[in-house]
């Protein structure tokens, strides 16, 4: 598995290429259960922003290093030591403290949302402890696969706050079951892989982390073999449809395809089907 060129300077993530046109991003702080520091979410934002326009990548896998956790969420101890809300904070004025927090939260949100905004399809593979920020990240991915030992929880109420990085905005739209969403978010209770599959939060469950990553790689290779114009357009249109009316989405799709249908990929794909050969597509 080769290191992906241009991604070797990150401290808390490894970015490799297990197959042509596929990137594997791995959260790499296993000694702390891959719990996130501020430097980590800043790196994540940079990585996925770069992957979005990288012509060498057509599909992305995201997982966590180690056997125990995808991520235990926010490193609460580190966050409390550096928080403007901590005792002794220099920011005493309420309005100024609020402005600082608002900007801080927005930056955090943007870094995690970079996974969703990435033009390339992102497949997240979870295992073991997957709590708090793990759910935020998973909600941003396009496809969710998990190992049977995955233990999920929206844990924020247990540390005295409402989740603010995306779960409360995205999870209801993903599973379409308001009662279940409110149950797990209000109680902070754990739910397992079988329950996640039953409500549609994940699409596949495998016996182990290794089997889950193998399945994700097979799927990523399949996606990467398709026209990047078609795949990236499909992701864009699906995400747009989620957030707009049917009428708005149909109009947007028409405008989008008025340009995209002029690609050579369209002819290449049609002819390959007639000629019964595997098509190849230019990088995008």
The multimeric state of the shown protein is single chain
Count of DSSP helices? 11
Topology pattern, helix = H, strand = E = EEEHEEHHEEHEEHHEHEHHHH
Q: What characteristic shape results from the CA principal axes?
A: globular
Class inferred from helices and paired strands: alpha/beta
CA-to-CA gap between the ends? 23 Å
Give the amount of beta strand, in percent.
15-25%
Question: Which key features would you list for this structure?
Answer:
alpha/beta; 11 helices; 284 residues; four-stranded mixed β-sheet; 49% helix; globular
Description:
- By secondary structure, the protein is of the alpha/beta class.
- Helix content is 49%, strand content 16%.
- A hairpin with a 2-residue loop joins β2 (13-19) and β3.
- It starts with a strand and ends in a 9-residue tail after the last helix.
How is the topology of this model organized?
Elements: E1 2-3, E2 13-19, E3 22-27, H1 38-52, E4 59-64, E5 69-71, H2 76-82, H3 94-117, E6 122-126, E7 129-131, H4 133-140, E8 143-147, E9 151-153, H5 167-175, H6 178-187, E10 191-192, H7 193-198, E11 204-206, H8 209-224, H9 228-243, H10 246-260, H11 264-275
Parallel strand pairs: 3-4, 4-6, 5-7, 6-8, 7-9, 8-11
Antiparallel strand pairs: 1-2, 2-3, 9-10
Can you summarize this structure?
This protein is of the alpha/beta class and 284 residues long. The chain contains eleven helices and eleven strands.
